[in-house]
Amino acid sequence: MNAFEKIKKSWWVIFPFTFLFPGVGFIYIGMKFNNKNWILEGITYELPWFFYLVASAIYSSYSMIIYYGWILLLAAFIALIRSIMVAIKLVDIYDMDENPVVTKVTSTPMGKAKEDSSLGACCICVIFIFIIFAFVAIL
After folding, report:
1. Which residues contact 43 (CB under 8 A, 6 or more apart)?
2. Which of 7, 70, 79, 93 is in the most buried spot, having the most CB atoms within 10 Å?
């Protein structure tokens, strides 16, 4: 597989760069490979935006917007790092299997290990995001 085809199959990594949709790429790739952990991880990266929209409708404080801005930047940065990590693993899988649409990532030993580690990363991100929201709520 040449470099252009690898880049073409990894277009979903662009979403964390948009800052507005950091988890959409994970939701897309999770649906493509039928991996629930990646879908949950994508939803986790979208949660700060949901909480920001709800909180900004209730509270109109300028200081709250600054705190949420930092949280949103942090969530987008974490999503960017994770999407690059997953894209590198998927490039290896694309090299091993020229037809990735037919097979699932979870059916390979590498995909199974990825599924287990992504669950831990997803849970850590959710816990971290909720701790930050609790801290901002206290302030």
Report:
1. 23, 27
2. 79
Q: Which of 130, 134, 132, 137 is nearest to 70 (CA)?
A: 132
Which residue reads 């490039």 in tokens?
A: 91
pLDDT tens, residue order, the chain (139 aa): 677 777 777 888 888 888 788 889 889 989 988 989 889 989 988 888 888 888 777 777 676 777 788 888 888 888 888 888 888 888 877 777 665 454 455 544 444 444 444 555 556 666 666 666 656 656 5
Under 8 Å between Cβ of 41 and 23: yes
- Fill in the DSSP letter of residue 59: -
Nearest by Cα to 19 from 80, 81, 87, 101:
80
> Residue holding tokens 């760069």?
17
